[in-house]
Design a protein that fits this description.
The complex is a heterodimer of chains A (about 190) and B (about 525). Chain A has about 190 residues and is an alpha/beta fold. Chain A has helices at about 15-30, 75-80, 110-115, 125-135, 140-150, 155-165, 170-190, and strands at about 1-10, 30-35, 45-55, 70-75, 85-95, 120-125. Chain A has 7 helices and 6 strands. In chain A, strands 2-3-1-4-5-6 form a 6-stranded mixed β-sheet. In chain A, strand 5 (about 85-95), helix 3 (about 110-115) and strand 6 form a beta-alpha-beta unit. Chain B folds into 3 domains: about 5-220, Thiamin diphosphate (ThDP)-binding fold, Pyr/PP domains (Rossmann fold); about 225-330, Rossmann fold (3-Layer(aba) Sandwich); about 355-520, Rossmann fold. Chain B has helices spanning about 10-20, 35-40, 45, 60-70, 80-85, 90-95, 125-130, 140-155, 165-170, 200-210, 215-220, 245-250, 270-280, 290-300, 325-330, 355-370, 400-410, 425-440, 470-475, 495-505, 520-535, and strands spanning about 5, 20-25, 75-80, 105-110, 135, 160-165, 170-175, 225-230, 235-240, 260-265, 265, 280-285, 305-310, 375, 420-425, 445-450, 485, 510-515. Classes of the chains: A alpha/beta (about 190), B alpha/beta (about 525). The interface between A and B is large, with 54 and 51 residues.
């Protein structure tokens, strides 16, 4: 088992919480893990990515080789396209539809979606809307993770447990909302295939 | 033993705690910051009373650590690569004084300049100082090497350098801990003149350092460097630091047909290098950073040796390594995914919405309109982003503190008024001495000290300048009526503009301090406050 995942977004969107939960679940499953993060200047509203690698064998490189990623999980639609050279021909793109517009030349969102639709294996999900409907606007990342969970080869329960463990200091309400967000994301993927 | 999931930086910190370190000294700088932060947040470190307050700059940090070593305790100094330039004086001279308690300098390099102004390779500094250098290939090795580093530092009474790069510093992996060791007892150096570098003593100390080189080389041959035999001698590979991982990545079954020298410790191990050169037709050197090993082995005249690497173009001359670059250097086919669609726009970092610097720049830029563009010297911090659109408000960013001194030099040359824009933490790091120069010379400059009460770019560490800036300026001799404090807010633009105009017109040193808390720090504080309320 090996999953090489690119997590994409904009600095401040919190892609590292997705990484942390997959990481906890992977360790719980006894898998090896390497995760390269971006700290420093790019965190100020720039494009950010994290290379997350999980495997049942020891992992050599902290960086995923180009053309070998199994999956791009993006919390922002245009950012999902920035890492296409990393994606293998069999790879999945799981992305949020809600654009994060902090540049004057952001392309038309219809054109962005048209590009995403050209990718043979993709799941698009309006995670922000789902999270707001849930009354937990901060859980959008968990909706996206739920949508991606179908392709992760990690038992769903382990992801739920990872949420419990990561948010344990924030109380049951936060935990339950995030688990619900995760489940809705999962269901969305199952139904859209 | 316990297995933890740690960033490379965190593995180094945990190792230092476990190895009996008594104090860590540092100034924040990407990608080194998380080492010290980890110690600051560690319950264990608190219980063990390990000193971990931020230093004003890397030089004061290195000197503090050297004092702790003098007193017989184990200590660590952490900095980004350019921080080592600031600490170069104590760094190089501490190689001559030698250590008493173990001392490790961690230099975190940033090839590809993810968050830096250059990609200098700290291994050259280690070689320059003639001390052992450790370069881990992964997080576990980083952890293990700290223990070993303290041991050899005390065995040979020499400071040791650990050199890491961004991808090790900021990548997370499982790390197995070792048993914890007690801290050293207070113990003075046996020779109380060991640290007195008067020429007569320094000459003796330097000889000791030179005589130890052969021992350092022996340590290199016997510890972290490993030679792996291979049947195919048409090529040999020397893989330094994390270069080894990128090499292994290209052989999924881990069977490399060629001899491989995994190089993680310097001085360069002579025997192993001689062996690989003797038995292989060609040698490929993979190293993150400058071609240091390549250049050393090749020498100026090459002597017929076929060495491949960054110098002959087998590997790009600049930028960090990655698995694909290594694959290409090995002559393998590389198939990458689809191209990035043309519509994907660049998204450079930018000042946050609500950032006080935005309002400061608005007032400064407008006040400068009458004088014309091109006279604002700036510095290292979030406010450096003011160089980009839509602000285009500054004209330089060179090194910590250079804004004030460059403004002075430009004013000396006749560019008046010249303006310096510097952050609070950068000011106490390296700006104060430059301001003294300007005061002593009555330079016609306006110094803008953006006080957001934190070290913002690196994630909000305590600023040494907190609550002290105007008093420092006054103490350095800036006239009190030309120290102006304002609150950078949009609805105060007109009154702030007037202050900028007045001080730009003043022929002498004036200091303007726009003071408003970093918006990220403020939001974080508010969230914590509300979370606390929710609990109640």
């Amino acid at each position: 088992m090996k999953k090489d995942i690119i997590l994409a977004g904009v600095g401040g969107q919190g892609i590292l919480s997705i990484a942390a939960i997959i990481g906890l679940a992977a360790v719980d499953a006894g898998l090896y893990l390497k995760q390269a993060e971006v700290h420093g200047m790019s965190q100020r509203g720039g494009d950010v990515q994290s290379h997350l690698r999980i495997s049942d064998k020891e992992i050599a490189s902290d960086l995923i080789p180009e053309g070998k990623a199994d999956m791009i999980i993006s919390v922002e639609p245009m950012e999902s396209l920035r890492y296409l050279p990393m994606l293998s021909s069999e790879g999945w793109v799981i992305t949020n539809t809600k654009p994060f517009i902090n540049i004057p030349n952001y392309p038309a969102i219809e054109e962005v979606m048209a590009e995403i639709n050209k990718i043979s294996k993709h799941v698009i999900i309006d995670a922000d809307k789902i999270a707001i409907d849930l009354g937990s606007s901060k859980s959008a990342n968990m909706v996206i993770l739920g949508a991606a969970s179908l392709f992760l080869d990690i038992e769903f329960e382990r992801l739920e447990n990872a949420i419990r463990s990561l948010f344990r200091k924030k109380g049951d309400d936060v935990i339950n909302k995030n688990i619900e967000a995760l489940r809705i994301g999962r269901k969305h993927s199952e139904e859209s295939l | 033993m316990q297995k933890l999931l740690l960033l490379g930086d965190e593995a180094i910190a945990q190792a230092a705690i476990d190895a009996g370190m008594s104090g860590i000294y540092a100034y924040p700088g990407t990608p080194s910051t998380e080492i010290t932060e980890y110690v600051q947040h560690s319950k264990e470190a608190r219980e063990k009373n390990i000193k971990s307050t931020w230093s004003a700059n890397e030089k004061t940090a290195a000197e503090g650590a050297l004092g702790m070593s003098y007193a017989g305790k184990r200590t660590m100094v952490c900095m980004k690569h350019v921080g080592l330039n600031v600490a170069a004086d104590p760094f190089v001279n501490s190689a001559v004084t030698g250590a008493n308690g173990g001392i490790i300098y961690v230099a975190a390099d940033d090839p590809s300049m993810h968050s830096s102004q250059n990609e200098q390779d700290s291994r050259f500094f280690g070689k320059f100082a003639l001390i052992p250098i450790l370069e881990p290939s992964d997080q576990q090795e980083a952890y293990d090497m700290v223990h070993y580093g303290f041991e050899i530092s005390e065995k040979y009474k020499v400071p040791v350098m650990m050199r890491i790069t961004t991808r090790l510093a900021h990548s997370r992996a499982g790390v197995v801990r070792k048993a914890s060791r007690a801290q050293n007892e207070l113990k003075l150096p046996e020779d109380l003149r060991q640290f007195v570098l008067l020429p007569a003593i320094a000459r003796k100390r330097y000889k000791i350092l030179l005589d130890n080189q052969i021992h350092f080389e022996k340590e290199s041959e016997d510890n972290f460097n490993k030679y792996f035999d291979g049947k195919d001698k048409s090529l040999g590979i020397i893989a330094c630091g994390i270069g080894y991982n990128y090499l292994m990545e290209n052989y999924p079954d881990r069977n490399i047909p060629y001899p491989v020298l995994k190089l993680n410790q310097y001085p360069i191990p002579r025997k192993q290098v001689e062996k690989i050169l003797a038995e292989c037709d060609e040698v490929l050197v993979l190293e993150d950073g400058y071609p240091m090993v390549e250049e050393n082995i090749k020498g100026f005249l090459s002597k017929g040796l076929k060495i491949k690497g960054r110098l002959d173009g087998s590997v790009p001359r600049d930028g960090e390594l990655n698995p694909n670059i290594v694959a290409k250097a090995l002559g393998m086919d590389v198939k990458i995914g689809k191209d990035i669609p043309a519509l994907v726009a660049a998204r450079p970092p930018s000042l946050c919405v609500g950032c006080p610097h935005i309002d400061s720049y608005a007032a400064l830029t407008e006040a400068l309109e009458v004088y014309g563009k091109g006279r604002v010297f700036s510095d290292i911090g979030c406010y450096t982003l003011g160089a980009l659109k839509p602000y285009e408000a500054i004209n330089s960013c060179v090194d910590m503190g250079a804004s004030i001194t460059m403004a002075k030099g430009a004013a000396d040359a006749g560019l008046v008024p010249a303006v310096a824009v510097i952050g609070d933490s950068t000011f106490t790091h390296s700006g104060m001495t430059g301001l003294l120069d300007a005061v002593n010379d009555k330079s016609n400059i306006t110094v803008v000290i953006l006080d957001n009460a934190t070290t913002g770019m690196t994630g909000g560490q305590d600023s040494s300048a907190l609550g002290k800036i105007e008093f420092i300026c006054k103490g350095l001799g800036v006239e009190e009526e030309h120290i102006r404090i304002l609150k950078p807010l949009r609805n105060k633009h007109e009154e702030n503009l007037k202050i900028f105009q007045e001080e730009l017109a003043y022929n002498g040193v004036s200091v303007i301090i726009p003071r408003r808390e970093c918006i990220v720090a403020l939001n974080k504080k508010m969230r914590a406050k509300f979370a606390q309320k929710d609990k109640k």
